[in-house]
Amino acid sequence: MRLHEDDYHEIDASLAAHDAFLKARYPGERPGRQPVHTVYVPADRLDDFRDWGGVALATMDRHDFPWPDPAVRAKLAAEPIEDLRVDFEDGYGVRDDDQEDAAVRKAAAILADGPRPPFLGLRIKSLEPATRRRSLRTLDLFLDNYQDLFTITLPKVSGSDQVSAMVTLCEKLERSYGLSAGVLTFEIQVELPSAVLAADGTAAVARLITAAAGRCTGLHYGTYDYSAAAGVAAAYQSMEHPAADYAKAVMQAAAAQTGVRLSDGSTNVLPVGDTADVHAAWQLHRRLVRRSLERGFYQGWDLHPAQLPTRYAATYEFFRDGRDTAVTRLRRYLDRQDSGIADEPATARALAGYLLRGLDCGALTDAGFPREQLTALA
After folding, report:
1. In degrees, to the nearest 5, what angle opens at C-alpha 257 toward C-alphas 251 and 258?
2. Would you give the distance in Å from CA 284 to the centre of its chain?
3. Where, if anywhere, are coiled coils annotated (predicted)?
4. DSSP notation for 88-104
5. CB atoms within 10 A of CB 6
6. In whole numbers, what is the pLDDT of the chain averaged over residues?
7. Is 201 strand, coil or helix?
8. Are 63 and 279 in contact (CB under 8 A)?
9. Rounded distance, CA 249 to CA 333, Å?
């Protein structure tokens, strides 16, 4: 052997900065439960969000839901919405200041009155010039009336400067309201091609994560804004259009191992009308939810109460279908048994993470291993 201790130290020193960068930039998957969906409710219609479960159950009964599952019905009765987003952007529209101020105060009062979903947030307007001041005013006023933990959704992000401005805004609000540093976090909605591919040809979405300085908790794909901006004709705008798949693949690569979670978008084909129309919309939504899960997007948007049954039916099916195989593969890996699949440590982590997600969402009651062991492996 020709290397000496000084050589080892030299290589260590040359890579110290890179080691620190990797630790800060790629800390790994964020621990804890991720909601399976985000429900967007316009701020002026927030009064009815607690009725979503009842509406979903009634729609299932009225139109003979094709995939009956007691667990889905129990979920809709107990916790129909996992992640609620009070929408002051597209779903709410542009109102005069007095009207939006009143809506902010009313929304804060409704939420404070409880009960609330386990995850909660506020979608403000974009930081583009036309809506910037109203966006800041809404967030400030909401904080003045409601200071429990919530997530901010920043829509139509077009570049990292807007994300940096959002970080500055969060810092100012934390100081003004006496909040702990770093408690205000936000999601970035990827709704414009410029948020995916920068003018110089680089991956803009990676820069967005960097500019967030640790405050970005998620990247949410916006199906219809992105498709329209990319020039896709309205009739062909979809979560499964090739333009959508490209954008989401870049998002996935940029967010991998950063702790920033991913959410797919929505379908605007709603389960309303006669039974034939409702069944067609359910079939589409169920297939799209399953498709997203298979591609590593474990969260999506829901826009209507009648989409909840297919959200949970498809999600539960996804984890139940793969449960036994995942348990067998993970047990063989841990026992060092020979099998037809040569699993590596990274795959073992993925198997454990899959089973944990199945437990967290309620699809599985028995994941084959204690939760503590799965958590340690993942």
Report:
1. 75
2. 20
3. none
4. -STTT----HHHHHHHH
5. 8
6. 96
7. coil
8. yes
9. 29
